[in-house]
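User: quick one - fold this with iron/sulfur cluster bound?
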Amino acid sequence: MNEAIEFTVGFSHGVEWGWPIGVYLLLAGISGGALIVSLALRYYQRQSVETPLLKAASLVSFVTIVFGMVFLVGDLEKPLYFWKILINYNFKSVMSIGVLALCLYIPLTFVLVAIVFEGWIKEHLATTPLAKLFFLFPLLKALRPAVEVLAFVFAIVVCAYTGFLISVLVRFPLLNTAILPALFIVSGLSAGTAFSSLIASFFFQADAHAGDMKTLHTIEWPVMALEMLLLFMLFVSLIVGTSFDKQTAGAFFQGGYSALFWFGVVGIGFGVPLVLNFLLGKKVAHSAFTFYLSGTASVLGVLSLRLFILYAGQTFSA
Amino acid sequence: MEQDEKRRNFLKYLGASSVVVGTIGQGVLAEEQAQTSNEGKKPHYGMIFDQNKCVGCTECEVACHKINAVPQGQARLYVQNKTDPATPMEKRYVRVSCQQCEDAPCVNVCPTKACHRDEKTGIVTMNADDCIACKYCIVACPYDVRFINHETKAAENCNFCFNTNFAKKQDPACVQACKYKALVFGDLNDPDSYINQILHVKDAVRMKPTFGTKPSLRYIPVVKVGV
Ligand code: SF4
Ligand code: SF4
Ligand code: SF4
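Assistant: Sure. Structure tokens for the protein plus iron/sulfur cluster:
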């Protein structure tokens, strides 16, 4: 086609979905990932007590998704109109489907927190007006299996939808790939695991090197390997693609966002945990310092990943 | 597809002008059938931009701003200068605006249906009141021709002057403003429309058709002959 007839300018300002959306994507990932891992572990290990991990994960999943909503609504240019999204639905829109899923998921995480913290609530809130609601606990107990299954399913849906949300954007080769939703689920698992381990150990006295924490510590590495593999696949699909794809592959090597990738995603997210846990000897690997630093690094790595995908993704367009 | 249709129409005219009586009968019949089947059919509005005629005066931009109250510094329509610096005397301009896709991603992704296709006319337009300015449509549009209007705080696109000139049954402001007739607006489903007559005789292309959104704008590029 005659190139002089193709226009090459647009009316948007490059990155229209900025860091608040990136933070939301991270928080949704943490929330879903934390629940998926902790509930899976509970089934797998047939646990019946409220483990520190479950306490941490349920709390984390509720709090992060609520904060996520704040960022999501805050990024609208008409935040006070956000209720319009709750009364108008477009079932072709991933955003509408996501909102529906969140409308179920957020109450589910809340109920799960209430169930898991029954003991604490009865002890600390007995003198408040909320005590009137305590009669609901037997009901919640009866519903618990259903709540757990639904929460597990919707946790996956929430993680996946954040990926689909941006993978439908055909203009951007880095985003418009089938790998993205998978990458978002896997990185969500990794951030969710890391964050809830930190909370479990810091607030709920989980032993950082035994029980659940130990199991999580062993699944952390295959998950990280999977994340690396998906990123590699994404990169390869770009360099063997069309001229637009090839240009987009440059996102990994040129410009400011490539620094975010190599420094944030690879250096902090993968490098720091690997070095601390494997290269500096057993003593360092088993220290509390390593536990906290490596967990924090994982979360920061996933934040960098979300921001990199979002910013670099919207910078290179077909 | 388009090519096929053109050829068929060409043959049809050939048939109609032929001296063979039988063919005339058939030609007329075909014409009649086409017309009756066109009744009750929804319109499909489209626009032609003819690069051969555009001189880059930007009168269309000015008219669009005025008629549709587009805030300063923003635009539904922009005329880009694509002149090759190596051949500065051979001017090339191109219209940048919503392509009025038949399969419009902006409509598909809008969570509130603020960005929608008008039932009757098939035009992709906006209900500014329902827009929450989530910008999903802006990132979803393959042509990058949507923006959040600073004043209404709602997303916007060229909607063929849906609320202004079109509502008054007039040609779009940009079309009216073009002194060189580089812009033609009309119903692509009406075989007799002027826009279709032009498309029958001129080669037109769609912008970035590989996105698969079936844009309704047609571009007639400058083609060098005899070089
Ligand atoms: S060009 Fe963009 S704004 Fe216009 S209909 Fe197509 S997707 Fe929507
Ligand atoms: S910005 Fe407005 S029109 Fe666009 S998708 Fe969001 S709500 Fe719909
Ligand atoms: S058709 Fe109307 S809204 Fe579209 S560019 Fe022309 S004047 Fe502007």
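One thing worth noting: The two ends of chain A are 15 Å apart (CA to CA).
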